[in-house]
Design goal:
Helicase, Ruva Protein, domain 3; Rossmann fold; 322 residues; globular
């Protein structure tokens, strides 16, 4: 089982890296999300290959990919589909929207109004949509990667906390290093086309691998450690005294479940048959940074969510025996 995780990840990464240089950790987190049956919220500036990344991942996995550009005039039917009248037949026929794909890129999700966001997020949670009073199940596997621009906030509709909580991870994408950017120039500076990727896996293989991930062992002390980390964020939201309260709200129970799922998947990818505190700490920031809210005072002092979560990691003791 352990060796299979490393081999599968290496196979996918090797193919994706034919078109993507760098972003190793983001690629790994996307694989964790696929294995965990979760969705990903990606925050980064334009031009950092977010679209190309998930398109390349879909090609390497042999999965269907669709991109939805979210705009203020987008309608829910543009995402999930609608009923279309057929004059020759004299009846309505279901026209499925782009959400009926294995990998869906919701580009700049905060640029569409709440109705459209809710339509997509309902599909994410229920794995089904209703068109014309009839329920249609989405394909398996199904992953949504939504992007946000952290700088431009004019004319946007920020996702409510209850909706961001539905994402397994919130990943921060930064600029490539100088070495990586130089490699991009050398590889593609004279080319006008992207390399063609081959499918080195399949949806069927992914679904079977999820069963192996479920077999990764989580000891009771480790589960207690995860719970203590999540509950510590709620304690930070209830702290009293001047300057003591840095969070307006703590993480929900979905955070505990996300830690369990992501820790199992990451441990399996690293060739382990059990999770450890180091694995939990590895995914902690990505799994919780969108599930807690800063107080006004913390924002005024330019404190970041990651800084507070790192403080939680430093305060909560690691279980004995690890």
């Amino acid at each position: 089982m352990a060796k299979g995780g490393k081999d599968w990840a290496s196979r996918i990464k090797g193919e994706v890296q034919k078109s993507i240089i760098g972003q190793d950790e983001v690629i790994e987190r996307l694989l964790v999300a696929l294995l965990s049956n979760g969705h990903v919220l990606l925050e980064g500036l334009p031009g950092l290959a977010k679209t190309l990344l998930i398109k390349s991942l879909g090609a390497a996995m042999g999965l269907e990919f669709e991109r939805i550009q979210f705009t203020p005039d987008l309608l829910p039917s543009d995402v999930v589909g609608t009923m279309v009248f057929q004059p020759k037949e004299g009846s309505f026929r279901v026209h499925r929207g782009p959400v009926f794909a294995n990998l869906v890129l919701a580009d700049e999700i905060n640029r569409a109004p709440a109705k459209v966001q809710s339509a997509l997020l309902e599909a994410m949670q229920e794995r089904q949509v209703t068109i014309g009073g009839e329920t249609h199940h989405l394909p398996k596997p199904f992953l949504v990667m939504a992007t946000q621009n952290p700088l431009e906030q004019e004319g946007t509709y920020p996702l409510p906390e209850a909706q961001t909580d539905r994402f397994l991870f919130k990943l921060l994408v930064d600029y490539p290093s100088e070495q990586e950017e130089r490699a991009m120039m050398e590889r593609w500076g004279q080319l006008t086309t992207q390399p063609k990727l081959e499918a080195v896996s399949s949806g069927e293989e992914l679904l079977s691998l999820r069963e192996r991930v479920d077999d990764v062992h989580l000891s009771p002390p480790l589960q207690a450690y995860m719970l203590a980390l999540v509950r510590a964020t709620r304690e930070a939201a209830m702290a009293e005294g001047a300057g003591a309260k840095v969070l307006s709200y703590g993480a929900s129970p979905r955070a505990s479940l996300a830690l369990v799922q992501a820790s199992r998947a990451l441990a399996w990818l690293h060739g382990m048959d059990h999770a450890t505190p180091e694995v939990v700490q590895n995914v902690f920031l990505d799994a919780l940074r969108h599930r807690v809210g800063l107080t006004y005072e913390a924002e005024a002092e330019e404190t970041t969510t990651d800084e507070i979560l790192r403080g939680v990691l430093s305060r909560v003791p690691v279980p004995a025996g690890y």
